[in-house]
Amino acid sequence: MENPLNKPNTSSFFLFSVHAWSNWSDARMRVRNRIEGSLKGCGWMSREWVLKTLVGLGLSEVEAEVYIFIAQAGPVKGRDIAEKLKLYKKLVYRSLKRLQAKGMVNTTFERPARFSAVSLEKILGFFMKAKTEQAKNLQSNREKLLSSWRSMIEKSSNNQ
Questions:
Q1: Structure confidence by residue, pLDDT tens digits, 76-105
Q2: Per the structure, how many domains does the chain have?
Q3: Which residues pair with 106 in a beta bridge?
């Protein structure tokens, strides 16, 4: 009879591989799990609330995490962000580019560039203004939209 201790346990290796792959491929889990230790001075609940608010305003979870990190760390290089958050540099630089386009991050002209966060107060003001404009636009077009909707529904019910 063969000794089971001499035989490699392929089933546990497979389970480990699947587990490692799923953690590797899920950027949101990686960011959430690994950033906790690098964020100082911010309680988990308040950080989570800010994160959810930023995501609710249209940021991806990675963008929100990068923004929070930059806001706490001060001017920082993209390479350092990737290292601290344990994310691929490419993913970090894509997020930084989108944050810059949204006006949430400033960049220095030195090489390598350093990134700094625009104050959350300014960001919230910008988003509040944009949402208010959207609500005004929706209100002014409400009757027109409802009329078009009723017409579409009426046509589809007549075609059946």
A1: 999 999 999 999 999 999 999 999 999 999
A2: 2
A3: 116
